[in-house]
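HOLO CASE FILE
Compound: zinc ion
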Amino acid sequence: MAKRVRPMNGTKNGKTPHLAYAPLIIDGTRIKMRLRVAGQLVKLPDDLPLPQIERRCSSLHGWGVFALERITKNSRIIYYSGQLVPSKESHGREAEYLEKGCIWCFELSHRWAVDANFGGNVSRFINHACKPNSYTQIIDGIIWIRAGRTIDAGEELTYDYHTGGTAEIACQCRPGCKGII
Ligand SMILES: C[S@@+](CC[C@H](N)C(=O)[O-])C[C@H]1O[C@@H](n2cnc3c(N)ncnc32)[C@H](O)[C@@H]1O
Ligand SMILES: [Zn+2]
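Model generated. Tokens follow.
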């Protein structure tokens, strides 16, 4: 199951450590595990045939992402781009981001996470919902957001962050929701 990184204390001096490697752009549709290097940007070509979506103000929280066209069930909508970070480091980064109410890191494997605070695309603004219309799936090293059902034009995209409540944020996905993100 694809899920968000759980924040833990771990940064040195409370600051995000810099990685030793300059960011690289991965220009393919597959990342080979053995070729992964900390600091790489997970980025696919811009001309992939994906549905039209856009960032707008959300009634759930701040920015959200909305469908501009009807999206059929299981279609790939967008991938989660950002910087590849070793898991150990991502927990510390996420703890730092959470102090500002942000969740930017996504678990890719037991060794790696993707930090959308660096090189993130619009997918980083997709909000959480307890009964979401989308889901996440890791395919060939890429975190995809896919439609969990047919999504109509104008609907806000949501998926379940699967944080297990570790971010301690009260969920606003619907009136009366008692969920904790
Ligand atoms: C990845 S960002 C999503 C974009 C965010 N709305 C923004 O404007 O930056 C995740 C943050 O959005 C907020 N968020 C997302 N879904 C939420 C929900 N269902 N209820 C309350 N806050 C939510 C939380 O503050 C969370 O840390
Ligand atoms: Zn909820």
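CASE NOTES: The longest strand covers residues 134-139. The pocket of S-adenosylmethionine (ligand 1) is lined by residues 58, 60-64, 101-103, 124-125, 127-129, 169, 171-173, 181 (CB under 6 Å).
CLOSED: yes
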